[in-house]
Design goal:
With 142 residues, the chain is mostly beta strands. It has 2 helices and 8 strands. A 5-stranded antiparallel β-sheet has the order 4-5-6-7-8, covered by helices on one side. It has a 3-stranded antiparallel β-sheet with strand order 1-2-3, with helices on one face.
């Protein structure tokens, strides 16, 4: 049995990171490979996106989970932003109409026991706190 054909297709997984003052496009690379023999046997596979690839692109994570019994674990990147309204800086006005807007973005990457990426997700949480006596209605959260 001899290999008669090998086809390698490069793949990129796009990663759009929109953080506090940073809007960054990146990607993580992988490769799809097909192999065919002269006897008609064919096989295929993927190269993996590894934890090392993710950390090299995004830097040191904010948090890392403990290893689960199956050897898998996750890393999390956390970015937060706090913005106060202009009224919050004026002593008398802030007591009446102060407001704070906050946002937190979390990116979570899950890896198997071999440190290969198996899943990822992102979450954005925004809140507005009305601190003044005249705007104490409710806390708005998204």
């Amino acid at each position: 049995m001899k290999i008669i054909r090998v086809t390698a297709t490069p793949l990129n997984v796009p990663l759009h990171i929109n953080l506090v003052g940073v809007d960054r496009q990146s990607s993580l690379s992988s490769c799809y490979v097909e192999v065919e023999t002269d006897t008609g046997i064919a096989g295929h596979g993927f190269t993996a996106i590894t934890e090392e690839d993710v950390v090299a692109k995004l830097g040191r994570p904010s948090a890392m989970s403990a290893l689960l019994p199956d050897g898998s674990h996750s890393i999390t990147y956390s970015y937060s932003r706090l913005q106060m309204s202009a009224a919050s800086y004026l002593p008398v006005v802030s007591a009446l109409a102060g407001e704070t807007n906050a946002s937190v973005t979390l990116y979570n990457f899950t890896f198997d026991a071999g440190h290969r990426l198996v899943d990822w997700n992102s979450t954005l949480k925004k809140t507005t706190d009305k601190m003044g006596l005249l705007n104490q209605q409710t806390r708005k959260s998204q």
